[in-house]
Here is the input.
Amino acid sequence: MEEVKDIEDQKVYLISIEIENLVIKKAITLELRSFPAWAKVMKDVWLVKSHLSASEIRDKLKIRMHSGDKVFVMRASKGWAYRGVTVGEWIRKNI
Here is the structure.
């Protein structure tokens, strides 16, 4: 679990994963839910709030992954648009 620092000073990251093994996918899901604030945007796309950098988040997740699994992490910013997702309010509050 990530240490909770001042959550207002933390950045929001978009994380996309491709994981075939359901046991590993469940472990990654638990890891993503351990961030101080998170939202599941779509099937394998998450937003998390963290004091870690994008590469630190990637490294935290990849230690649980197999060599064929994929993860993409980038800092989220304003200028987003969506359709058909239910986390719009979370995004407005956190980005």
